[in-house]
Amino acid sequence: MTHNMNESVWEFRELFFSRETGLEETRELLTFKAERGRWELDQTRIYRDGRKKVRIRRKIIRVPKGC
After folding, report:
1. What confidence score (pLDDT) does residue 4 get?
2. How far is residue 37 from each of residues 11, 51, 53, 64, measured CA to CA in Å?
3. Fewer CB within 10 Å, N side or C side of the chain?
4. Domain ranges across the chain
């Protein structure tokens, strides 16, 4: 199987926050994930009842065999 080296492969995670979770607390957690785990924000959804769903992603770096 051959892979295009320019093709990006992403890992995704979904985080859910209750309506009681403040924006500052949400921001702090996302900042921590970004700084420590190289995650970046992909998608945010805020529901009418105040719940929040956030999808984050990070690039998977594959090392070619034999390096």
Report:
1. 57
2. 12, 24, 19, 22
3. N
4. 10-59
